[in-house]
Request: fold
Amino acid sequence: MKHLLLVFFTLIGTLSYSQSTYTSSNHASGAYSQQMTTVTLGVNAFNFDTTGANLIWNYAALGKDFWGNKSTITAAASGYQAPFITQCILGGGGFTCLIKWNGLTNMGILDLDSMNAVVVTLYDVMTMAKKTNGHLVGTVKGLRIKDSTGIAVPLVSEYSDYDTILNFPLTYQDSGKSYGAWGYDLNTIGQNIQYKVTYDRKYTVEGWGKLITPHATYNNTLKVKTTLDQVDSVNFLGTKFGIPRNIVEYTWYDAAFGLPVMKAEGIEVLGFTTINTVSYIDNVYVGTEEKEFAQFNLFPNPSTDNITITNNGNSKINSYKIMDIQGRFVQQNRFSKSISVANLESGTYLIQLFSDNEIVGVEKFVKE
Reply:
């Protein structure tokens, strides 16, 4: 009888904590958005490497630096359909160009607000993808870049090698690999630059279990590790050079959400991974903290030389730190109302405002 009871409770435990499966129907399609908190300070104090079955990943002590949204969008509303069709027609595609577009993509995934591409800054970087029952495949890259007159021009590039981002369904110990390549010749907008990105993608579903963040507990998640062995190649004014990077991403998927509920991103150097940013779902920040951070105004934005910060609240600002979108601190000093950003490269930045050692404000700005 004791043996029967042992088997019974073992089965109950197995059923209560069975591993998750993440299917194509669970993943976002079209217009979808999740409110996220991103943190950069102190993330290296946490271990993101733990793998295995029926684990508990406890990141309840993660902080919060700034807020935003992770989102997908319908292909037609992405802003890149018209440029793609125009470019296709000019290339001799004719009336089949819309058919080609619809065959390549049914959703857009916002990658970055801006990206430093060595000699130029790319804005609104988006992966146009095709989601089916079995795969999520990146097929077209859309972005905006400023031409020689300073006007932001939308550009599209069909991948020369389509990138299989995920295979569905995702279950524990699944794995996959792909090769992706896309690029632009910017001579068409007055920039003597050719830019190309190539990478080998590998992913492994290396764990399942409970994920705890500062604002929620997800009882049944899948943890996916993705590595991108990437090279950014640039031909600038006839000079060719390449910048290799080994990018590491840890993502936690919950079947109730269309995009990862948490993501940790970093780089690998000589076999050692450094996490730079972590983002997680945060649907509770609207309230006291938002009102506190809303007491500051920053202008002009975008800026070329100086930014001015006005304090409409009671917090006394002593110092500031500026970080880039990779989470690296690029400037810090004692606070003054007017701050020079002339030495920063073009791109998107965050400025953290401190009262003694406490963050009392975070503002986002663009350096042109």
